[in-house]
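[job 4471] stage=fold_predict status=RUNNING
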Amino acid sequence: MTEQTADDATVEETATADELAFDVDDLPGGALAALEAVLMVADEPIAAVRLATVLALPTARVEALLDELAAEYRGENGGRPRGFEVRRVGDGWRIYSAPVYADVVGRFVLEGQTARLTQAALETLAVIAYRQPVTRGQVSAVRGVNVDGVVRTLTTRGLVAEVGTDPSSGAVLYQTTGYFLERMGLSSLDEMPPLAPYLPDIDAFDGVDQAIGDNR
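[job 4471] inference complete, writing structure tokens
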């Protein structure tokens, strides 16, 4: 049996620059900015080894870059403290608002509860209400657009909630909440107007989550 070296393991756990077709160090801002861009769109903590794969960099270097970003956001080395920070949570890393601004952020979120829902939010909520439990990928397939941001808004407002995962795809399932019924003036889902027959059958979109990578 051929002995595997530490360098071989590093190659296996990360992609190569050739596979990416470009070198992140050649991008504006370099690898540090590329790492920051990935973290900005993450909605859950990402392991350093996965970040290394995405950036085609050794894991050790990505961990060093994460520490560098964390120090920069804290305002070390003469920089300005930011309103956000990057920190490790469990086995992953993610950008969060800084705890010192929790009251300000909380006020913003609470004020958003009283804002009217957009047309996109209402349409997404309708699909979830009539076809629940349903994944974001299935809702996106029905509406024909990405609904990740809209579902996050509905979740933040307490109108929908996660209720487990789809056994075939591992994607998160969503359904409406008691607060949704309260806001709609309903005592149960059975009182909703008969709109469901006009929506596509969710069964027709089985497997769509694997196709679009919605396994969060």
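[job 4471] summary: The chain is about 45% helix and 10% strand.
[job 4471] exit 0
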